[in-house]
């Protein structure tokens, strides 16, 4: 029955599916697969954009302008937030790769590298920073 829905309805349904269940919906038929692929790319882009915004939030604290909270608290919160966003983004990327949704070889290489870095405990986006690095720039 799901394979007979109009594309417009499929688009609306797919847009509401959480990331963790998104790829499973691609198994219905080729229309669903295409819509899931588009939605997964949107999710990938949204996580990348959000990670960039979170990085920008750390800029005001670069010079140590924090008198109401310790550097360690801010650093720990920031790191956990970035780690969670990265894990969510890598989840989508890996599912896309494993289900043949990645078209371009460069995207495939990016995903494989990021997954490898993350599995070995590395920082795939090179976002790992320390307060001492910023303080020494003064």
Largest sheet, described in full?
none
User: Structural class of the secondary elements?
Assistant: mainly alpha
For the residues shown, what is the average pLDDT?
A: 78
Number of domains: 1
Uncertain segments are: 131-138
- Please tell me what the overall shape is: elongated
The number of strands is 0
Strand content: under 5%
Distance between the termini: 64 Å
Percentage of residues in helical conformation: 55-70%
Radius of gyration: 19 Å
Succession of helices and strands:
HHHHHH
- Total helices: the number is 6
Structural descriptors:
mainly alpha, disordered C terminus, 138 residues, elongated
Can you put this structure into words, describing what you see?
- It is built from six helices and no strands.
- It has helices at 7-16, 19-25, 30-57, 71-98, 105-119, 131-135.
- Helix 3 runs antiparallel to helix 4 (71-98).
- Mean pLDDT is 78; it is low at 131-138.
- It has one domain.
Describe the structure concisely.
InterPro entries: F-box_dom (IPR001810). This protein has 138 residues and is mainly α.
């Amino acid at each position: 029955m799901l394979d007979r829905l109009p594309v417009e309805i499929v688009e609306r349904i797919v847009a509401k599916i959480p990331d963790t269940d998104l790829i499973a919906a691609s198994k219905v038929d080729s229309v669903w697969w295409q819509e899931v692929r588009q939605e997964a790319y949107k999710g990938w882009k949204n996580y990348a954009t959000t990670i960039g915004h979170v990085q920008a939030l750390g800029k005001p604290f670069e010079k140590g302008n924090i008198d109401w909270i310790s550097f360690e608290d801010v650093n720990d919160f920031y790191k956990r937030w970035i780690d969670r966003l990265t894990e969510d983004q890598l989840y989508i990327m890996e599912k896309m790769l494993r289900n043949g949704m990645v078209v371009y070889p460069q995207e495939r290489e990016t995903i494989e590298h990021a997954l490898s870095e993350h599995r070995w405990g590395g920082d795939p986006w090179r976002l790992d920073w320390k307060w001492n690095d910023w303080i020494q720039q003064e």
